[in-house]
Fold this protein.
Amino acid sequence: MKDFDVEKIANSGEVFRLNKVSDDKYKSVYELISTDKYLNIVYDKKKNTYKYSCDKDEFKKIYKDYFDLDTDYSKYLKICKKDDKFLKDAIKYGEGLKILRQDKYEMLISFIISQRKSIKAIKTSIERICREAGKKIKNEFGIFYAFPTPKEILKNKIKLKSCGLGYRYPYIIEACERIASGEIKLDEYDKLSTEDLLKKLMTIKGVGEKVASCVALFAYHRLETCPMDVWMNRVLINAYHGKFPEEYIPYLGVLQQYMFYFAKEEHNVKKEY
DNA sequence: CGCCAGGACACCG
DNA sequence: CGGTGTCATGGC
């Protein structure tokens, strides 16, 4: 399936608990843990198909939406300007990427952790807090750990100090306190405009514009939000002379995902664009 | 060993 | 408002 590529999504920096666990000539196996749910995904290389460990009802109810499978991304990507070689190459390179609909709370904590860390380091840090504070999941594939709820994080404060969180530790504790107390209701932010959503998220200590944008894009599916990290800043300066074209703005978050993935994987931002 | 990582914040002018 | 130093720690 060229319009849905789990391998690329797993490496795209928008989801941190989707990982390849085995790979041979015939198939690749991936594991996804989202909140407290486990999904095993087998990609058949010959048939070019995916097989999932859940039943069809659950897939339809949860994962179709989670992976945004009903959306034809060509409607976003066709706004690429004809003379925009960088985006054209990025779209081709990133074919199969999706903007997922992930859990709001999990994204918030994950991206607070993400600041000044590599994607690899983010993943290990998240796995550690899940192991220290998350519920144990046992199934036919093994033993896994759910993403801890705010209460579970607060209950295991001391253990979390050994998870490589560094200076982000107090940020996470405070965010969890405000969510657990009911002061912050992430679900209610659904009805806010994107501008107000970002403002609300940024009232949380440790959440600046970049982290708020990631949460808005990857959890609230605000496709116009464009997280600007070190890679996207290089893209903006080197390929767009400091300004993205106006017509990109409604879907800049989607386009950004292809640009980010292309730039990060190929390290080619400085070359010829 | 040094450098960078999907940055935020306090402080400054 | 925009610019600067500082903040822990893992990966490479």
Remarks:
- The mean pLDDT of chain A is 96.
- The beta strands of chain A are 18-23, 27-34, 37-44, 49-52, 136-139, 142-145.
